[in-house]
Amino acid sequence: MDWWKGVIGHSWIYPTLIICANGFFSAMRPSEPFLTPYLTGPDKNLTIEEVTNQIFPVWTYSYLALLVPVFLITDYVRYKPVLLLQGISFIITWLLLLFAQGVVAMQVVEFFYGMVTATEVAYYAYIYSVVSTDHYQRVTSYCRSITLAAATIAAVLAQLLVSLADVSYFHLNAITLASVSLAFLCSFLLPMPQKSMFFHRKGVSETLPGPDKVVATVDSSRQEDQGSAPAGRGPTPEPQADHAKPQNHVLRVLVQLGKDLRDCYSSRKLLYWSLWWALATAGFNQVLNYIQVLWDFRAPSHSSAMYNGAVEAIATFLGSATSMAVGYVKVNWDLSGELALGVFSAMDAGALFLMHFTDNIWACYAGYLAFKACYMLLITIATFRIAVNLSMERYALMFGFNNFVALVIQTIITVVVVDSRGLGLDISTQFLIYGSYFTFIAGIFLIRSIYTIISIKCRHTSEAGESTNL
Length: 470
Description:
With 470 residues, the protein is an all-alpha fold. Helix content is 76%, strand content 0%. The protein has helices at residues 2-10, 13-27, 35-40, 48-76, 80-99, 103-118, 121-130, 136-163, 169-188, 204-207, 211-214, 229-232, 246-265, 268-298, 308-326, 333-357, 361-387, 392-418, 427-469. The radius of gyration is 23 Å and the shape is globular. It starts with a helix and ends with a helix.
C-alpha cells in the first residue's frame, strides 16, 4: 500500500491515465450528432424555429458569462474542483435532456452545457500542474488524442446504432449520460495539485518554462522580429511575502496578468495570429452550433435517412489528420503564414456558400467536411505560432483571452443574426451571412499577406542595390 501511495503521489503516469480516462468518457457522447433531430422529433416536439432562435443561443450567452470567472476560479482552486463541477454539469445536462420538456427546460439545458464548455479549461490545465515540464509534450499529445479518438468512436457508434440497430435518439442520450457519469467518477480519483499556473506558483524555475518546453517540434533556426521579443519572456516573478494577505496576493496576480496580456499583444506577429484566431473561432463555433439545423432543413429527419454521425466521424478524422500534417510541413510562416490564413479562410467561405446555395444534402455534408478540415489546419498553425513565443503561463493566458474575444464576437453574431429578439433569420440565410463573414476574414489576411510579401521583396531589392553600389 505504501508503494502504491508513492506511485500515486509522485509518478506522472497515474494522473495522466486518470485524466485521459476522464477525457475519453467526457468526449464519448454518441447523442450529440443527432441532437437537433432529437429535439425536433417526437421526444421533445419542438419546432426548428424554437431550437434555432430561442434554445441554441442560450449556450453562447451562458458560455460568455461564465468563461472569465471560471478561468480564474479554475486556477485559484487548482483544477480538480472545477473538473468535478464539469462532471456535475454534464450529468444535469443529460438528465434534463432525457426527462424534461418544453422550451424553458431546454434553455436550462443550454445553460448547463455552457458551464460544461466553460470548465473545459480545467481538463487541459490540470495535467501541467501534476507533471514536470519534461513530460508536457507527451501528456499533451495523450490528452488531445484521447478526446479526438473518443469523439470519433462516439460518432461512428451513433451512426451504426441508428442505421443498423434502429436505436432511438432517447437511448443514445441514455448512453451519453452513462458515459459522462463515468467521467465524473474518474474526477474523484485525480490527485489534488499542489500548484497552479498563476495563483499557486512553486518557484521561478517552474513558473518560467522556456518556449522549447511548449512546442518541441518547431525548427530552432527560426528568426523572429523585434516585436516578438517582449512576449517571449515569461511572466515577471512576483516576490511572495510570507504574511501577505490573500486578497492582496489575488490583486497582484490580476495586475500581473494584465501586464502579461499587454506585453503579449505588443508583438505584431502574435497580434495578427490572435486576430485570426478570435475571428475564425467565433465563426467556426457558430457554424458547429447550427450545422445540424441546416442538415435537418435540407433533409428533414422525419422523412430522410440521417448520416450525421458518419459525417462527424469523418470530419473529426480529417481534422486530426490535417492537424498532424502541419508538423511535417516546412514553411517560412513569417512570410507565408498570413497568406495561408487568407487562402484557407477563403476556402472556408466557399464551403459555407456551397452549404447555403445547394439543396443537396450530400453537397452540404461535403462543404462541412471541407470547412472543418481547413479550420483545424489553420488553428493548429496559429496555436504553435503563438505557443512557440511564450512561456506556458502566458500561452494559457493568451489562449483564454483569444477564446474570450471569439466568444464576444460570436455572441454579437448570435444576438443580431440568430436570436428571435434580433433579426431571427432562417437557417439558410444564416449560412449566407457566415460565408460572407469568412470572406471578410479572408480579405483581411490576403491584403495583409500581399502587403507583407511586397514589402519583403522591396527590402531585398533595396539591399541588393546597396550591396551592388558598394
